[in-house]
Fold this sequence. Notes:
Elements: E1 10-15, E2 18-23, E3 29-33, H1 40-53, E4 57-59, H2 77-90, E5 93-97, H3 104-110, E6 113-116, H4 124-131, E7 137-140, H5 147-159, E8 165-169, H6 188-195, E9 200-202, H7 204-208, H8 214-224, E10 228-232, H9 250-263
Parallel strand pairs: 3-4, 3-10, 4-5, 5-6, 6-7, 7-8, 8-9, 9-10
Antiparallel strand pairs: 1-2
Helix pairs in contact: 1-2, 1-9, 4-5, 8-9
Amino acid sequence: RQYRHGEASEVVVNIPDGQVVFGEHHPLVVVAGPCSVENEAMIVETAQRVKAAGAKFLRGGAYKPRTSPYAFQGHGESALELLAKAREVSGLGIITEVMDAAELDKIAEIADVIQVGARNMQNFSLLKKVGAQSKPVLLKRGMAATIEDWLMAAEYILAAGNPNVILCERGIRTFDRQHTRNTLDLSVVPVLRKLTHLPIMIDPSHGTGWSEFVPAMAMAAIAAGTDSLMIEVHPNPTKALSDGPQSLTPERFDYLMQELAVIGKAV
Ligand code: PEP
Ligand code: MN
C-alpha cells in the first residue's frame, strides 16, 4: 500500500490493562505464552507469570496447525473460553490463531489481535476475511515466502479494509534442520523498515526451535530494531503438548525480560 503522508505507522490495541502501541517510536511490546492452550491451570498460571515479567499480550493456540493429523490439534472453542478467562484475571491482551474462516467470528470475540499463521500466509480467502473485520491482524511470514510474497499477503488484508496489520518473522526453511528448526531472517527488520510502515514482530521461538537459542536471538532482534517479540513460554516445557523444546520456563522468561530491558527499547 502506498504510504500516505501523516498516516499512522503504528497499530494501537486496547487491552484490559490499557493501550498498547506497536510501532517504531514506541516501547518494545512482548507477546508471550504457550504454543497451545492445554488447560485452565496452565494458561492462567502462564498469563500471571508473563504479566509479572512485563509481557503485554498472552499468546496461545486454540486451533493448531500441526504437521501430523495425529498430533494434538488444540482444544478449539473450549480453549477460547480459557483464553478469555486468562485475559480477565491477568489484564493481558490475547493473541490466538485463526485457521478457518468458519471460526473467525468466535475468535474475534475474545482475541485482541488475530494471528494468521505461517501455513496460511497465502490463504487468500482467509486474508480477505480477516481484512473485512476490525480486529488487528498478526501476519506470520510463510516458511517459504519471499518478502514480496509476504507484503502482498498483507496487502490483501489492507485492501479489504483493515489497516491494522503487524508482520511477524518466524524463520524460513533453509537447508539445515539438524541444529535449528528454521532460519530466523533478522535482515527483514531493516528491509521491512525501508519497504513498509507496518509494525514488525520477531518470533525467535519458532525461528530457532530450541529454547537455549531464544534469548540470543531475542536480543539480536532488538539490536536490529524490531518493534515487538513473540516468545513461547510454558510452565513445564518437557510436558508441553506442542513445541516444548522451544519454550522457555517462566523463570527463564523473567530473566530474559530483564536482559532485554538493559539492551533496548524500554520494555
Ligand atoms: C504458533 O505461533 O504457534 C505457530 C504455529 O506459528 P507459525 O505459524 O509461525 O508456525
Ligand atoms: Mn508453537
